Amino acid sequence: HRLVLGNSLIKKTLFDIEKSLFYKKQFETKNQQHVFVTGLPRSGTTILLNFIFQTNEFASLCYRDMPFILSPNLYSKISKKKNIQSQERMHQDGIKFDLNSPEAFDDIFFKTFIDEEIKENLEIFVSLILKRYKKKRYLSKNNSSYKRIKIINSIFPDAIILIPYRNPLQHAYSLLKQHNHFCKAQKKDKFILDYMNFLGHNEFGLNYKSWNLSEKYENPFTLNHWLEQWCFFYKNIIMDIKKNKNVILISYEKLCNNLE
Fold it and tell me: What band does 259 get if pLDDT is binned at 50, 70 and 90?
């Protein structure tokens, strides 16, 4: 993981090899209704991802593709990974995963390239994942994609962007709880910190980066900090998406009730 994900030159080289071997514009990807799930962590993005993925209509990056996220077809030819028994993820929130579970891995792509390179290669990247899993529609869960809504819409004009929201007090408490949990885990095992940095997961833990500058509550070990971040985040989201018909806000509470 450190060798492949910790070196931009290696990642770009693997992507170039993948393109040269496997990329062919065999079918239309630009105007498909791909789905991008984004928003604050602990808002239900993973539940939503798993629910949509179960329809079997979408291709998504999975644990089986790690750590060769930028060369999924090449890696599938040489990998001999066998499935693992389903187990609870590190969040200790009851959500289980195995090698075939989808996960938020495409931020590795976004962290590897600058904006112009992203515009040139995002459609190719998605096409390669669709080829890998023999699907026509792409499904992504990435808590940072809210920052890229304009880029996503410019490349995939028919894409649907789903943003869950949750009761602010419950949401803030959940974020605070995870921040404490991951700080402790990362102090015990440095690889957990490195792994989350490779994936761009800086939502909580020792390398936490707030979504907005704090005005009153800078201490992430207090509930007020996360409540303030919640208010800033969704205020900005509402301002950004007022005229965007592709973006849909989804209530976490209603989603959970419907899934039951």
Answer: low
* Residues 95, 1: Cα–Cα separation, whole Å: 23
Residues 6+ apart with CB under 8 A from 151: 115, 118, 119, 122
Task: Please state, in angstroms and rounded to a whole number, the distance separating the CA atoms of residues 113 and 95.
Answer: 31
Residue 38 near residue 144 (C-beta atoms within 8 A)? yes
Provide the 8-state DSSP code for 62.
B
* Its pTM surpasses 0.85: yes
Strands 87-88 and 96-97: antiparallel
Mean pLDDT of 70-76: 96
Which residue carries 């991802």 as its tokens?
49
**Total number of residues shown for the chain:** 260
- For residue 229 the two structure tokens come to 């971040």
Cβ neighbours, 10 Å, residue 116 = 8
